[in-house]
Amino acid sequence: MINRSVVPDIVSYNSLIYGLCNMGLWKRALALFEIMNEKGIIPDVVTFTSLTPAACKSGKWEEAVRLFRNLIDCGTLPNIVIFNSALDALCKDGKTAEALNLVEEMLLRGVKPDLVTYNSLIN
Length: 123
Hints:
The chain is mainly α. It has helices spanning 10-22, 26-38, 45-57, 61-73, 80-92, 96-108, 115-122. The chain has a single domain (2-122), classed as Serine Threonine Protein Phosphatase 5, Tetratricopeptide repeat, CATH 1.25.40.10. The protein is elongated, with a radius of gyration of 15 Å. This is Pentatricopeptide repeat-containing protein.
């Protein structure tokens, strides 16, 4: 794309990040996320819906929580997938109080906990 003077947009980056995450190439997806930010392209809920669960699957709990905080800082409203990924990361890291605070934040934002939410808390 770049060689043909086609400038990637948020959709292009999201597609590539999604594909890299699905292939288990977490580090490459995160590097692309950083490039996207450097280019001034603001990530959206789709970006974070790919990255946050991939961070958790890779055992990068702190990174998942950092991504979640980044999402909030960007003014993007998290969806249930993002909330559950961050919640799971907190629970696996033994941060029960923070996880329960996150559930309260979910409720305040009108996001109803689901089976995945409760499974993370129970585990």
